[in-house]
Amino acid sequence: MLSVLISRAARKSNQRVVVLIDEYDKPYTDFINDPDMAEKVRNVLRDYYVRIKAKDEYICFTFITGISKFTRFSVFSTLNTPLDVSMMPEYAGMCGYTEDEIIRYFPDYLEETADKMQISTSTLIEKMRDYYDGFSFDDDAEVRLYNPYSTLSFFRKKKFSNFWVQSGKPKMIADYMKNRNLTVEQFRNFSVSNDFIENPGDMDTTPPQGFLYQSGYLTLRPGTIDDLTLDYPNTEVLNAMSELVTQNILQSKDESYSQCRRDLLNGLLTKAKEPVIGAFNRLLASVPYDDYTNAAKHKVVIDGHRFPAQEWLYRATIFGFLRGCGVVVVAEMHTNLGRADLVVAHRGVLWVIELKVAYTSENAEAKAEEAYRQIMDNDYATPYPGAVCLGLCIDNSTRQITASQANFSPCIDDAM
């Protein structure tokens, strides 16, 4: 049918035709978590693109879009050698809106949205930049783009929300992360070479950073010297990834993500530690055993600070859960005396949380006291008047929070 369409269109118009193919790899990527079916689809698609090559005399131009490069897919070997414009600077702004374009072409939408939110237009643009900007498609990672779908959806709803994930194959990504015991945090500021950017590999054989980069969940950032780094483009994608991973963790143990999220948010808002700790424990109980055993084999270094692997996994899991629940959370918030594990804000209520892990025969109560004293002695909560200071101890044998100590920050006399 494709062959006939091309030749008949050319003859009827008496000129060579243009072939436009959008998402050329979608039939394959839909089965990225099913290798046997993916290989069958690959063979069908290979034959499909051979038909285009066979009709070359009738074609003046072919333009193909997709998220992935397949070295073994043979698409590019069956066609005439195409020009890959993916990382060429002159095309870096083609697949999204630059901030200048948003200001130039959407002034009425910006004004209406700012009025509804009761903020200035400049403040709105700053918030939009954090939430929706950040996709890069050039070697220097200098051009930043807003995702069109998210931007238009935001102007329509006039509300910050995770629109992009609705069009980004969330089930496929969530399953991919779960099947490989991956966390969201391990891909922050992930260093890669220029060779990797040019040849990230087949979607089914590339390492996870290559898969997430090609599928659009990671994007380019400037690195050191000649290298680049990968990171999540913006708050929208980061929050969406955190929510996807957390939902999959809980659902794998028949836990209710919605109920767990409600318990957490209610606890944060009412300054009640019991529902907060309960939500954390349900989350930790749902993390597969293999995650912990695999983590125990490694050490983790973040910004020069060395973490025991289990401690990092506990913290990253809780951190991702908080972020996926729509809570403002910052990890490793620095003060002049150290860094707090987690600083959490929900509807104006602040929490400063420090985690400790009890190994073998270590006393859980003593570890919780140590975590709490670290907050107080290092003035982690001083910048946050009225914050809840919460020291937690996770028993590494049960992988549960078994002891805690909490109080309000010193500027408030009330005790929790």
Structure write-up:
The structure is a single chain. This protein has 416 residues and is of the alpha+beta class. It contains 17 helices and twelve strands. The protein has helices spanning 2-13, 26-29, 35-54, 75-78, 99-105, 107-117, 121-132, 148-157, 170-179, 194-198, 208-214, 235-251, 257-270, 273-286, 289-295, 309-324, 364-377, and strands spanning 17-21, 59-64, 190-192, 219-222, 228-231, 299-302, 305-308, 328-335, 338-346, 349-358, 388-395, 400-408. Strands 8-9-10-11-12 form a five-stranded mixed β-sheet. Helix 6 crosses helix 7 (121-132), helix 12 (235-251) packs across helix 16 and helix 13 (257-270) packs antiparallel against helix 14 (273-286). Mean pLDDT is 84; it is low at 412-416.
Give the low-confidence spans.
412-416
- How many β-strand runs? 12
Distance between the termini: 72 Å
Name the strands of the widest sheet in spatial order: 8-9-10-11-12
Fraction of residues in helix:
40-55%
What is the strand content? Answer: 15-25%
Overall, the morphology is: elongated
Secondary-structure element order, N to C: HEHHEHHHHHHEHHEEHHHHEEHEEEHEE
Please describe the structure with a list of short key phrases separated by commas or semicolons:
single chain; 416 residues; alpha+beta; five-stranded mixed β-sheet; three-stranded antiparallel β-sheet; 12 strands; disordered C terminus
Concise overview:
With 416 residues, the chain is α+β, with helices and mostly antiparallel strands. The protein has helices at 2-13, 26-29, 35-54, 75-78, 99-105, 107-117, 121-132, 148-157, 170-179, 194-198, 208-214, 235-251, 257-270, 273-286, 289-295, 309-324, 364-377, and strands spanning 17-21, 59-64, 190-192, 219-222, 228-231, 299-302, 305-308, 328-335, 338-346, 349-358, 388-395, 400-408. It starts with a helix and ends in an 8-residue tail after the last strand.
